[in-house]
Each structure stands twice: as C-alpha cells, then as structure tokens.
Amino acid sequence: MAAPRGEFSSRFGFLMAASGSAVGLGNIWGFPTNAASNGGAAFLIAYLILAFALAYPALMAELIIGRYARSNAVTALRKISAGERSRAAAMLVGFIGIITVSLILSFYAIVSGWMIAFFFDPLARIINFDSASRWLTTDAVLRNSIFVVLFMLVTVIIIRAGVKDGIEKWASRLMPSLIIILILLIIYVLTLPGAMEGLRAYLVPDFSRIVEPALVVDAMGQAFFSLSLGVGTMLIYGSYISKEENLPTIGGLVALLDIGIAVLAGLLILPAMYVALANGVEIFDAEGGLIAGPGLIVSVLPALFNTMGSIGVFVALAFFLLMTIASLTSSISMLEVPVAYGVEHHGLERKNAAIIVGSIITIISLIVVFYFDPLFDMVVTFTTEVSQPLLGFSFCIFVAWIWRRNDILQEIKQGSPEAENGLFWKVWPFYVKYICPLAILVVYFQ
Ligand code: PHE
After folding, report:
1. What residue's CA is closest to ligand 1, atom 11?
2. How far apart, in whole angstroms, are the C-alpha atoms of residue 232 and residue 392?
3. Number of domains in the chain
C-alpha cells in the first residue's frame, strides 16, 4: 500500500520550492554571462519576451498536468492520454524525462561540488590553513569526487524527509537567505571602481544583435533550463499543490521570481567582472569575448576576491554560499522526479528510493568526474540542448492535442472559479497548441 502523497502546506512553501528549483546556476552564472556575450540588454529583452511568451505557458502546462493527475510524470501523462498509442508515448516521454533529469543532476552535482569547495576555501584561509586552501581550489579528481558525494548526500537527506519536512522546509529557509545575500553583494559590488562599466555592458542594448538567430536560440535555451522545464520537475511540484490554489497566478509568480533573480544576478556578475578588470584581473578570453565558462567562477571571481583585501574573504564566503544554496534548491527538485516515480510506480518507500536513486546518480556523476573530458560536455549538450527542448515540445503536445480541453478547464477552475472568462484561458490554450510547439521546433532546428 503506497504511503499518502505529500502536499505543500502553504502558497509561500510552494513558491519557495518552485522558485528554488528554477533559480539555480542557470540564473546566477548562465544568464549574466549569456547576456554579456549576446549584446547585453538586447539579450535581456529577448529573454524577457521568450520567458513570458513561451516558457511561462510551458511551465503552466506542467503545473496543470501535475496537479490534475497528482502523480509522477509517467503516471500523469498516461492519465491524460486516452488512446493506446498515446499512452505508450506518454510512458516513453515520462521515462525520457526521468533519465534526462537524472543526467542533468549528475553534471549539476559536479559543478555544485566546486561551489562547496570554493566556499570552504576562504574558511581555510581565515585559519591560515594554506595547504588546505590550495587543495580546495585546485581541480583534481579526488577533490571533485569528495564534493560530489557530499553534495549528493545533502540532496538525498532533504529528499528523504519528504515534501513538507524536506523540500518545503529547506526551500523556505534557503530561498529568502539567497535573496538577501544576493542583494547585499550587489550593493557592495556596485560601490567599487569599475562597476559602472559592467552595468553599462549589461544594460546598454546592442539592438543590432536582437534579430540574430544565435541570440534567440540562446535566450530560449536559457529560459527553458532556468524554469526547469520539460523534465517533469515542475510537474511533480505541481502535483503537490493544493486544489484550492489559483494555478495561473502562482505559476506567474514562479516565473516572475525566476526571471527577477536572473536579472538581479546580472547586476552582480557583470559589475563584479569589470571591478576585477579595474583590479588587474584578465576578464577577456583569447577571442576578445568575456570569459564565461567555468573559468569565470573558479578563477576570475576568486582572483577578484583576492584583490579585495581582508573583506574579500567574506565576500568570497557570501558568494559561494549563494551559489551553493542556488544549486541545492535546484538539485532537490531534480532528485524528487525519479524518487517520486520509484515510490509511486514501484512501491518503494521514500527513504529507500531516495538512497537508491541518489546512489545511482552519484555513481554516474563520479564516472563523469573520472572521464571528465569527453563526458561532461557530452552530457550537458545532450540533456540541455537535445533532450530538454524535445521534451518541452512533447509536454505541449500532450496538453494541447491529446488531453481533453474540458478536463483542463475543470482543473484550472479549482482554486480559480472565474478562470473560464479570464485572460489566461483566452490566450494560453492557443499558445500551447500552436505557438509553443512551433517556436520550440523552429529554435531547435536552428
Ligand atoms: N532551473 C535550474 C537552474 O537554473 C536547473 C534545472 C533544470 C533544475 C532542470 C531542475 C530541472 O539552474
């Protein structure tokens, strides 16, 4: 007999959990660097348009299916499919989503492990433990493996505790801390010489770039990754929302929080890079673009913190704490997807499912650590550029072409009885039916 399903106890709890899933390395690292290398505010504008016009409708599709079916992605997609063939497709899409999100977690855990190592580095330096500091900041298989295991352990512990006592409790503590740390860091960095130059690079648009296909493709990929779409994360979080909640409103709030925090992060990262430049740190790569890859986080910013004198240690601590929190509230949402499937489909106990699935993903992650060079880029590209857009496409197809329209309306009306006459119901069905799948395909084949 399966245990009763979890449910978020409040709107705030859901908002923190879902925005915690959405806000991650993608916002704080990916968005600002993407913006910087794609014409500054031109990217920002393209991103805002795509996020609201395409990603938000896709987010709503997942939340609505989840809350209607009150189950994991595989079961939920089957439940909204009537025919034999669509049920088989449902099984396939749900399953690929589970595999994809597990693979995303396997590379995410490696990067998150770096963030923890760099968080411990200033602590080691405060107590003058120089050899530890060197070990923590030098890329090595042993260091990476230890921190992958540590990060996955914390993720598993939170997921073991369940929806209310694990996900909701921790997201409600961590997300407000993240916002406070982010704002404090922005205020501090903006007072430093060079910061205004960075603001200019971020906020002055180069409109000649806005029509470039590469910019639009990047902005769309960024929006989908950032809102955790296509892989069943938002679906499973949606399945824990109370039937009294107004779905279009809370989905909108999640999108707003996610986009807002990405935009805020740009106010930190780009000014910080130009402050680093003013302090003599190299911030451009060989081609003359801004350094955006791992080098930004593990060498440019630490070099900046080193030039800040004694306060630099605390700025470094705050920054890597911010990155660790952002990672953790995302990783728990990823692990929840296969765990919920294991519990609901295979009758596993949650605690055991968390340990089994967590261990499997840790092993995959360690394999990627050992064979980093070919594997890391391969896993990232396959999951985020191939699998995620195709899954996003499939979710739209399921909602708009396979699921009965009346069932959708009845579901939305729970918690929002007036929905039938509202703007959302006038626009959204058309969007998920035609615009979203078409746009995803166009961008995909670019
Ligand atoms: N949205 C997260 C980020 O921006 C990543 C993520 C992708 C989380 C897919 C869950 C599922 O970093």
Report:
1. 228
2. 10
3. 1
Assigned domain for 100 exists: yes
Q: Which amino acid is at 366?
A: L
Domain that holds residue 385: 11-445
Mean pLDDT of the chain: 93
For the chain, the straight-line distance linking the first and the last C-alpha, in angstroms and rounded, comes to 48
Minimum mean pLDDT among 26-35, 134-143, 200-209, 226-235: which range? Answer: 200-209
pLDDT digits (tens, 9 = 90+) for 328-365: 999 999 999 999 999 999 999 999 999 999 999 999 99
Q: Is residue 3 part of a domain?
A: no
CA–centroid distance, 220 to ligand 1, in Å, is 14
pTM of the model: 0.95
Output the residue whose Cα is nearest ligand 1's atom 7: 228
Rg of the chain on CA atoms, in Å: 21
Tell me the residue length of the chain: 446
**Distance from C-alpha of 248 to C-alpha of 163, rounded to nearest angstrom:** 22
User: Are 96 and 391 a contacting pair, CB within 8 Å?
Assistant: yes
Distance in angstroms (rounded) separating the CA atoms of residues 55 and 68: 20
Which of 110, 228, 259, 387 should be mutated for ligand 1, with most atoms under 8 A from CB? 228
Whether ligand 1 lies within 6 angstroms of the CB of 27 is answered as yes
One-character DSSP codes across 316-332: HHHHHHHHHHHHHHHHH
DSSP 5: P
The Cα 162–Cα 321 span in angstroms is 24
